[in-house]
Structure formats: C-alpha cells, structure tokens
TrEMBL record:
Keywords: Transferase. The keyword Transcription does not apply. Residues 1-149 form the N-acetyltransferase domain. SUPFAM superfamilies: Acyl-CoA N-acyltransferases (Nat) (SSF55729). The keyword Metal-binding does not apply. GO terms for molecular function: acyltransferase activity, transferring groups other than amino-acyl groups. This is Putative acetyltransferase.
C-alpha cells in the first residue's frame, strides 16, 4: 500500500467520497454536506503548512485518508495539539492495518511539527478500543445539535 500526502489531483475523488466519510462519522444526522465546499476545505488543508491530508492507496484503489492540523492547547498555549479532522477507511479495507498506518504517519508528522499531544475523534467502539490499547485516554465527548436550518 502507498501512503502519501494528498495531491491536488486527489481532491475531486476525495470530495466525491466525502459524503460517505460524513455519513460514516455520524455527522449527517446533524450537519449538512456540500461537496463543493468540502472540496474547497480539502484544498485549504493541502495549502496550509500547519495541516496535512494523508491518503492511502492499494494500486489504483483508494483505501483511506486522514486530515489534521496543529492548534495551540487552549489550556496551555505553549503546547501544540495535533488534531485529526477526519479518519476514513473504505469498508473493504477496515479489517486491514490501514487506520493504524494512517494514524502512525499523522503522529510522526505531528511530532516533527512540534506537537506534544495528538487527538482523534472516535466514532465506533472498535476504533475507540484500538486507541485505548495504544494508551489514548478519553478526554471529551462530541455532542452536536443543529440550532438553525
């Protein structure tokens, strides 16, 4: 499998698959999806030196992607947190090591960028359990409510 930083040519495919990422993560129950807007967001990540968009491929088949960026720790601004925006692995590859490989690359990037903490959203119990086995601690629960249409 090939893992690499996303290229501009990858963006249209990722934007098309974005609806699946959005639904798999549970966002569709509250958040809208705009393919063109998502494509612009992905372009902003690719162009941002404090963010990364990683893709994984098996020959020509798309396996998965992870996006993330660097932020100051709200409670201790001298620390930097690397936070994943999304982690998506296509259903046919979910029993592989794809998620572990993508998160490993993200964590190496974060460390090289000076981050001292890394965070992920965990939308399935399986993913949460995998993170816990690696020493991650539950620090928050994301709650969403649409307050305006």
């Amino acid at each position: 499998m090939e893992i690499r930083k996303a290229e501009i040519d990858d963006i249209p495919l990722l934007a098309k698959l974005g609806r699946q990422f959005h639904e798999d993560a549970g966002f569709s129950s509250v958040q809208s999806y705009d393919e063109k807007g998502f494509q612009e967001s992905l372009m902003n990540i690719v162009d941002n030196p404090l963010a990364i968009l990683i893709t994984m491929w098996e020959e020509e088949a798309f396996v998965g992607a992870l996006s993330g960026g660097l932020f100051p720790n709200f409670f201790a601004p001298s620390e930097t947190i690397a936070q994943s925006g999304f982690l998506c692995v296509m259903p046919e590859f979910r029993k592989s090591q794809a998620a572990k490989d993508l998160t490993g690359i993200f964590e190496k990037w974060a460390e090289n960028m000076g981050a001292s903490i890394v965070t992920y959203f965990g939308n399935t119990q399986s993913l949460i359990n995998k993170f816990r086995k690696r020493g991650f601690k539950k620090t928050d629960t994301v709650m969403s409510l649409r307050i305006k249409e």
